[in-house]
Design brief:
Blueprint: H1 6-18, H2 28-37, H3 40-48, E1 54-55, H4 56-63, H5 67-79, E2 83-88, E3 91-96, H6 99-108, H7 117-129, H8 133-139, E4 148-151, H9 171-177, E5 181-184, H10 187-194, E6 207-210, H11 213-219, E7 224-225, H12 228-241, E8 244-248, E9 256-260, H13 266-272, E10 285-289, H14 299-303, E11 309-311, E12 317-319, H15 329-333, E13 339-343, H16 354-365, H17 368-372, H18 379-392, H19 395-401, H20 404-418
Antiparallel strand pairs: 1-3, 2-3, 4-8, 5-6, 5-7, 6-9, 8-9, 10-13, 11-12
Helix pairs in contact: 1-2, 1-3, 2-7, 6-10, 7-10, 9-12
Length: 419
């Protein structure tokens, strides 16, 4: 790759980010975001570095940068949340942050350095809320994989001997299984605050990081370490405020829980404002109304964070099953117990661990080949990305690999290749 400057450099960076775990469609607003957040030197390194997590020596080899100079650049990128740096077997490794979950969240959670927060908020708001292009690129018809899944409120679930609630579906159990905890500013509420769109009284500092992700978040000032009791207190507060609990879409080693309000959360607005019902993976439950218990008070209609419940003056309470995410907010808010969660008829797919989620997420979005052949400047890798990418994008192939029948063997092979 030749030396790029100006808009050509940021256009190349846009292509690079668009080919990570979440699509980032190009427009002038994305250009403005990238130019605001990355220096030209940082953008050049980001364009040249491998797609996959890599050591400093590997990145130096691929980019051609001096090791000491590269270390300073990567440290600067990590401090801004544009690169994630982790310790693997005692050695530092680096990977580019995708737009979501990554660049947007970390930028709007920053508490250190020179912060142009109001400008960042305006740009991200225009990009994520100006039209539906981001949601269309990632959650069009047939989408199954989101980075987030809904945790249902247990007290809203209909009591039945036939209903089993698994530990990974229980917010309290997810918290208790974690080892470390940190709390930071909600990126969505912070964005809405600075553009004058925050209409709720929900506090900013509720979003929770757990387990291995805490080290990165605390080390760079995106969050502060807290004891487990703080998270349980926040869960109780979320229930009282009618917030949706959105967790990392994995069954084991959950790395975050978001406390989402319908007015600010960009994920929930993807459903209620733009009409993409799969921006978050539903819980295994769905809301059902009991007309005999209903007092027609309208509390459930007001409480539903995604506008999935309606009621005419003289008609029944109607739950839109194509939209309902199974959060249980309507159930905990209904004073008459007329809304409960019941088991969905169709099984909900939740990956086992983060590796599986990322692989399936990339497979669905057509970017998996980039992580299999991750050197952006190597001609053989470029050729293989094109060939394998074309194969994986074939609808029958993608559909087969996302099914239970082939998914486990496919993921096992990918894990061996990645290890």
């Amino acid at each position: 790759m030749g030396h790029l400057v100006g808009k050509d450099l940021y256009r190349a960076l846009g292509r690079k980010i668009d080919n990570l775990t979440m699509r980032a469609p190009w427009n002038e607003t994305l250009y403005a975001i990238l130019k605001e957040l990355y220096t030209e030197e940082e953008a050049d390194v980001a364009v040249r570095m491998p797609y996959a997590m890599s050591t400093l020596d590997r990145i130096a080899e691929v980019t051609g940068y001096d090791r000491d100079r590269l270390q300073r650049i990567l440290d600067g990128l990590a401090a801004k949340g544009l690169v994630v740096d982790v310790r693997v077997n005692g050695a530092g490794r680096y990977i580019l942050s995708p737009l979501i979950i990554g660049i947007f969240e970390f930028t709007m959670m920053r508490t250190r350095g020179e912060l142009n927060t109001k400008q960042w908020a305006r740009l991200f708001h225009d990009y994520l809320n100006g039209d539906d292009s981001f949601y269309a690129a990632n959650f069009r018809a047939g989408a199954m994989m989101s980075p987030l899944r809904v945790l249902p409120y247990g007290e809203a679930i209909e009591q039945s001997e036939h209903v089993e609630i698994l530990d990974y579906e229980k917010a309290a159990a997810v918290v208790d299984e974690a080892k470390t905890y940190a709390v930071g500013i909600c990126s969505c509420r912070h964005e809405k605050l600075h553009v004058g769109k925050k209409t709720c009284a929900v506090p900013l500092d509720l979003c929770t990081t757990m387990n291995r992700s805490c080290d990165y978040m605390v080390r760079h000032g995106f969050a502060r370490a807290v004891p487990r009791s703080v998270i349980h207190d926040n869960l109780a507060q979320a229930r009282e405020m009618g917030l949706v609990l959105c967790a990392d879409n994995v069954r084991r080693e959950v790395s975050f829980i978001c406390f989402c309000c319908g007015c600010c959360c960009n994920v929930l607005l993807g459903i209620s404002k733009f009409g993409y019902p799969h921006t978050v993976v539903t819980s295994s439950f769905i809301a059902r109304a009991n007309e005999e218990a209903c007092a027609a008070c309208g509390t459930c209609v007001e409480a539903c964070p995604i506008k999935a419940i309606s009621r005419d003056a003289d008609g029944p309470t109607v739950v839109d099953e194509a939209v309902c995410i199974g959060c249980g907010v309507c159930g905990v808010k209904c004073p008459h117990g007329a809304l409960t969660l019941v088991k969905r008829k169709q099984r909900v797919l939740h990956p086992d661990v983060t590796f599986e989620r990322i692989i399936l997420q990339c497979l669905e979005r057509g970017t998996l080949q980039n992580f299999m052949f991750s050197d952006p400047g190597r001609l053989t890798h470029k050729f293989l990305r094109a060939v394998v990418g074309g194969f994986l994008r074939l609808p029958p192939v993608k559909k087969a690999l996302m099914t239970d029948t082939l998914r486990s063997s496919f993921l096992e092979r990918m894990h061996k290749q990645g290890g």
